[in-house]
Write a structure and sequence with these properties.
Layout (H helix, E strand, L loop, with lengths): L7 H9 L6 E5 L6 H15 L7 E5 L14 H11 L7 E6 L7 H9 L4 E6 L7 H7 L4 E5 L5 H4 L7 H11 L11 H24 L4 H13 L4 E2 L1 H11 L6 H13 L3 E8 L4 E11 L2 H7 L7 H15 L3 E13 L2 E15 L2 E8 L5 H12 L6 E6 L6 E2 L4 E5 H5 L4
Parallel strand pairs: 1-4, 1-5, 2-3, 3-4, 7-9, 11-12, 12-14
Antiparallel strand pairs: 6-8, 7-8, 9-10, 10-11, 13-14
Amino acid sequence: MADFINRKMYLEKIINRMHNGAVKIITGSRRCGKSWILKKVFRSYLVSQGVNEKNIISISLDIDEPDCDEDLLQKENLKKYIYSKITSDNEQYYIFLDEIQEVEGFERLVNGLAAKENIDVYITGSNSKFLSSDIRTIFRGRGDEIRIFPFSFNEFCTGRSEDIRELWKEYYTYGGMPGLLKQKTPAMKASYLKSLWNKTYVDDVVERNGIRNKTALEAMVDTMCSSIGSLVNPAKLANTMNSVQHIKIDDQTVSSYISCLEDSFLFEGSKRYNIKGKKYFESIQKYYAVDVGLRNARLNFRQQEITHIMENIIYNELRSRDFLVDVGLVEVRELKNGKQEYTQYEVDFIATNGMEKFYIQSAYSLADEQKKKQELKSLMRINDSFKKIVILGNDIASYTDDNGITFMGILQFLQGSL
């Protein structure tokens, strides 16, 4: 695999935000590549555009800077050090501050830098103490967030020569965490992913949120990993933990833990939306893991249900393409046993990005005609003109049937089709 993966999608997002007067905040789960994108990919772009290296001031606050004897975790020392590098008011400077949350009171310093016309500020932070939910208050409306996800399938395939179907198997087993590039064997990959959970993610959540019952939190993680793509609410999850794992926990605590795991970018919730009624159901959602490899490792690779894993990967791909994703519900009146009754049909995803909207079903296989009919019921009952898509697990040529529903293979979708 290529040593340098130019994550073009994120590079373009950063380029589009250059010199906009806001603080560019790079967020995402730990080890997903935030620092790499900023300090390697974006830096290389700036140099290629003729920016002098001395005008790129990059500081990693979790390590000692070799050319500075001062403690840069002290705000005044950091401020003095940065301004010593800015030697002209007539030149443009780019400031990268990695792990900025290590500096107490960094907000005023960062906002002050961003207010200067010749300074463009970019920061990352460990999400144990620095989360997207904090941005609104920290930067007073002057923060511009760029969310980073683990490797997409296209990124994962960069520089690889294996058959794409073999790469797909590897991807849905081990996921797209960039650190896997250095892991040569399946055992090493599995060990790396498990280590992230044990030594990084859980401890982060516990530390930030002051969680006292780490055992219950870990049981919550296991339950959510087992429930990807299922409609759940806090009460249902609490009941599962009580009955299956024998962990006594109430739904309020479960709700709090879910929020902590979402804030740490380990899971995302997708709300249920009534398409015809045009309203959300607040109490029930589907949750997806930010990376299926992390999810699989957490469960010791025991629950390898390709249908749920494929659905999770589709969700993550849509999110990485900047779509907002809801779970759809179509409610219709039908005649049953001589009576008119309401029937609910599920749509896996409603993907929206500005004026674009797609209704998407994830169906690993539709070989059985009865299953195909069942999967299409919800799409057939949506009356608007937005595109309806079924993504299949096999490799097929894309086609549109007489009902205007488009069918495509998972590899087609992941390689850019929609």
